[in-house]
Amino acid sequence: MMEKSLISRAYSLPAAYRYDRTPAADQSGRRRRSDLSRWSLLIGVIISIAGCSDSKELATFPTTVKVRDSDGQPLARVRVSFRSVEHQITARGVADDEGVCQMTTYAPGDGAVAGRHQVAIGPPAMIGDPDDVQPNIRIPRRVSSYDGSKLEGTVTDSDEPNELTFIVPVK
Which H or E element spans position 82? Predict the structure, then answer.
């Protein structure tokens, strides 16, 4: 019996290297203060980051956009984007078969923020059956990006819905 205990003591690992000990507990089974401090610090950082985030959404106002070609015909399924000049917030929409779309900023159909907007109108979106898209519509590059587009629209903060119509020369 004496030999066995001497041998086990001779080959036992120091406490820091034993596998039977959890790294978060000391020999008495209590959690180490350093581990608790780390967790407290991590939780504090997460809470402060969440509290400092800019989650304030600006008010939006219902905005309906009609997109027509130079002959007055509706442009179906074209993509419409508004970018607020003042706030740099984007609203987007896709025109239906009648060339009408409801702009969306935060939630579907909520509209756009008030103020002046740069407008870009892009080629038809591939929604549903690809055969239904008007194949001969080509939106000029000069209106399909904010940089090249001279299109502008103003969204008001009135109680009346905003209705804007844009005429786009198509190729």
Answer: strand 78-84
